[in-house]
Amino acid sequence: MMKIALFGSTGRVGSVVFQQANSTHEVNRLVRKKMDRQTSGMDIAGDVLNEEDVMKTIEGCDAVISCLNTDKNDVLSRSMPILLKAMRYHGVKRIITCGTAGILQARKESSLYRFQANESKRRSTTAAEDHLRAYLILKASEMDWTIVCPTYLPDGERLGEYRTEVDVLPEEGISISMFDTGDFIYQQLEDDRYIKTRVGICY
């Protein structure tokens, strides 16, 4: 049994990861306020931008999973150095995060990220830019990182069949459910094929 530090466990994808991990591993999770539902590890009420709270969450863990959502205040890129500092302090190397397909390379213009090219339909690039900064911080680190990058993410259902590709979105990928995304993120705990890569995921 592994011990997992989970961030963003109450979000759509994070709640799927939590459900999976909590049934098989010990999970420490950082939450904004105390939850009724108990984890197999510890619920730590706090803030991902507070170093002490993050340190406490990661202490004694074997791996970190972050399904944090971006916001207008760059929480992803501001929290990443704090996560990495706590990982170094506690000797943790493995981190899996949920990104966005916008930070994959564009297929036709491979020097661009998808959010910079015509492939992305989103008008606002604020979220993608925060994701990109977090990715570049991870990429520059010594960690064994994987960033799972879903395209359009409806609630959908768990189909169990999808396509993945390193650094780009599989061709003509339109969507992927939060359930299949969460399952794939969870599977990365046991899968080292995608270490130090971004993975595009879609149906």
UniProtKB/TrEMBL annotation:
Domain NAD(P)-binding: start-end pairs: 8-191
Entry superkingdom: Bacteria
Molecular function per GO: oxidoreductase activity, acting on the CH-NH group of donors, NAD or NADP as acceptor
InterPro entries, per database record: NAD(P)-bd_dom, NAD(P)-bd_dom_sf, Polyketide_Oxido-like
Entry-linked SUPFAM superfamilies: NAD(P)-binding Rossmann-fold domains
Protein name (database record): SDR family oxidoreductase
Organism from which the protein derives: Rossellomorea aquimaris
